Input
Amino acid sequence: MADTVTRPDPDALLARIEADTEREQRGNLLDMARLQEGHVQLRREWQPLEEVVGASMQTLAVPLARHEVVVNLPADLPLLEFDSVLMERVFCNLLENAAKYTPAGSRIEIAARNEGDRITITVADNGPGLPPGREESLFEKFTRGQDESSVAGVGLGLAIVRAIVQAHKGTVRGENRPEGGARFIITLPAGEPPVVVPEI
Output
């Protein structure tokens, strides 16, 4: 006897997507209000960058499945002092934007390098790029990028990214890559990680 394949109800699926989008938008608005009012207490701990990047990718496993994701984090990258929950939000927002605004099959790259007193992290893609001349204004509240009518959101993702990065005494900017696509560059202070003494 053949197995019966149950197909998802399109209306139910659409309702779920809309509910998830609405919940995300409410969360963005609440986060932005808290960040602006200084009500967010950073819970900073020394930790590896790869863990928060990995957690972000796991959270976005479904939208990222349509893309080629390449992670290039040096093995000797030092520990960074940051709030893991907030920094995960930074990478989730950047990766989600990359997945939203680039066609299926596009390449998304996450890389980092040690520059002495700071760590530079990039999230790049080979999609259509940022609107020329609007690279800076995209970080303003309620500002969105390409294909605004076809992509859900209220334009708070990058504003939240900047607010969180600045709360960590860092900087973030967006630019178009010479070879095509967009690139977001985050710099965070390297600080002085604690010395870990191996147990004998």
Observations:
- The longest strand covers residues 107-114.
